[in-house]
Automatic annotation (TrEMBL):
Family per similarity comment: Belongs to the glutaminase PdxT/SNO family.
Protein name: Glutamine amidotransferase subunit pdxT
Species, as recorded: Deinococcus gobiensis (strain DSM 21396 / JCM 16679 / CGMCC 1.7299 / I-0)
Annotated stretches, region: Disordered: 172-191
Superkingdom, natural source: Bacteria
GO terms for cellular component: cytosol; glutaminase complex
Reactions it catalyzes: aldehydo-D-ribose 5-phosphate + D-glyceraldehyde 3-phosphate + L-glutamine = pyridoxal 5'-phosphate + L-glutamate + phosphate + 3 H2O + H(+); L-glutamine + H2O = L-glutamate + NH4(+)
Catalytic residues in the record: 53 (nucleophile), 149 (charge relay system), 151 (charge relay system)
Pro residues bias: start-end ranges: 182-191
Protein keywords: Glutamine amidotransferase, Hydrolase, Lyase, Pyridoxal phosphate, Transferase
GO biological processes: pyridoxal phosphate biosynthetic process; pyridoxine metabolic process
PANTHER family to which the protein is assigned, alphabetical: PYRIDOXAL 5'-PHOSPHATE SYNTHASE SUBUNIT SNO, PYRIDOXAL 5'-PHOSPHATE SYNTHASE SUBUNIT SNO1-RELATED
Job of this protein: Catalyzes the hydrolysis of glutamine to glutamate and ammonia as part of the biosynthesis of pyridoxal 5'-phosphate. The resulting ammonia molecule is channeled to the active site of PdxS.
GO molecular-function terms, A-Z: glutaminase activity; pyridoxal 5'-phosphate synthase (glutamine hydrolysing) activity; transferase activity
Amino acid sequence: MREVRLPRDLAGLAGLVLPGGESTTMVRLMDEYALWAPLRDFHARGGALWGTCAGAILLAAEVTGASPAAPAQRSLGLIDVTVQRNAFGRQLDSFTTPLEVAGLDTPFPAVFIRAPVITHAGPGVEVLARHGGEAVLARQGRVMASSFHPELTPDARLHELFLGLLEQRAPRVGGGAESAPARPPTLPGSA
Ligand SMILES: NC(=O)CC[C@H](N)C(=O)O
């Protein structure tokens, strides 16, 4: 596992998690570090992607603001969904809830932090969970999008689901682990 900040960091990876944060800032950083084409190429070459919260916003085909007045935002278009940002209100309206997820026997503890919802899913998209009627977890092929933050709970079932996508569908991208640059292990960052 390694942090990906620059296009070259993608070499040798089979999957990529786009974390939560602030998607407007992340769009600017993707411009700054020229990540748009390499990320699309990573997907086209068989890489699996999972976006959580702001990461899900980045993967969506279309992004809308919480109000019609909010400006539209560019996105990668790697999963055929429309995502509405900040759909549950402000930071103070963040919450945790047990979520029924298709394929899991017991509810998943889902942490929503100023989270988006999926307002439209195309025909190729499987909606795996809803909260209050709104889609909050979806998958299309080897791309997953979750409104919530599975990394903030000890429950690893969605991580397992993602790893399953790598094993089943994604050959290693960019020449295999052996040819990836050697790096010291990194601790998870605060982003
Ligand atoms: N927890 C998060 O990732 C919040 C996402 C943030 N509200 C955004 O629109 O980008």
